[in-house]
Amino acid sequence: MRNESIRLDGTLYNRSNLEQLHFTDEPEDSWRNVIYHFLQNWFDDSDFILAHTSGSTGKPKSIQLPKQSMLNSARMTNQFFGLDASCVALLCLPASYIAGKMMLVRAMVGCFNLVAVEPSANPFENLRTFVDFTAITPYQLFHSAESLRKASVHKIIVGGSPVTSKLEQLSKNIPSELYETYGMTETCSHIALRQFNGNDKSDCFTILDGISIRLDERGCLVIKAPHLLTDEIQTNDVVELIGRDSFHWLGRADSAINSGGIKIHPEQVEKKLEGIIPFGYFISSVPDEVLENKVVLVIESETYSPEQEELLKSQLENLLGKYELPKQIFYIPRFVYSSGNKVLRKETLDECK
């Protein structure tokens, strides 16, 4: 049964009054009109919603998501967090991406009030109401940490990119329960969660009820999720299974570097470097005649002085194994970003060469 109404900012909308959400004096791609167009598509007779992947691992692509799968996913999240008609949730992500779309579907399924605000780096700065649940990105969490120490927000899911150790440290004194999500557009948002603050803090993801997981021959995660109405979903995420329902995320198979016959996961190297580089950075590789691929470090900064680079190289030698150690350092004033504010590594590295 498809949900045909939603309570937004205290007003109940359905097919009959949905036009009230159409702001004709704003561009059609304004944050409010994107919400309107999603609901317009949701209330139509199609069984599918058009969604777009973020482009963080390649070119963005369009996919058709069954509305029933989105409803099933929303029910799982609402059940896990105890969300019902008595709750208030906050939408502060663009409804053009799956995370924002699923907040709208959760509100429809749970019959709770959804307060919508313009997506920004700190959506909690002027928040004047208690919020039971919301979803944000790591970028928003970084810029909102101080506001969240004062705001009344019960539970927050954080997704879109990995939560770093630095961000975990920054979140220590935030009273809200904070959960890192694991999922993708194809799974209609998350299928696993990891609380990273408070007494129940964990270092591994735990799958939601009804989900099962296994590894393929590459050590990549394979997801069986009956609510998605599909066969198994094959990922490119290399993980370490912890029992039957938990896992550590190690990195992506398609970003792994084969250097001299040694496999290196850039994400694990980057984690070791947290705190020593005060700028954006990532680990990648370039072709090498001897090693096949050599590890390189790319920093979002003007070129370091010789003294600064010598100090950095000394720190790298202390923190990294000999195979992980970058053989070259590239500097670029600004990384190349996707429309979803994710670093496009290949395009950025191409500009460095």
TrEMBL record:
Residues 22-200 form the AMP-dependent synthetase/ligase domain. InterPro entries: AMP-bd_C_sf, AMP-dep_synth/lig_dom, ANL_N_sf. Keywords: Ligase, Membrane, Transmembrane, Transmembrane helix. Belongs to the ATP-dependent AMP-binding enzyme family. This is AMP-dependent synthetase and ligase. SUPFAM superfamilies: Acetyl-CoA synthetase-like (SSF56801). GO terms for molecular function: medium-chain fatty acid-CoA ligase activity. It comes from the Bacteria. The chain crosses the membrane at residues 80-99. One of its GO terms (biological process) is fatty acid metabolic process. Pfam families: AMP-binding. It comes from Paludibacter propionicigenes (strain DSM 17365 / JCM 13257 / WB4).
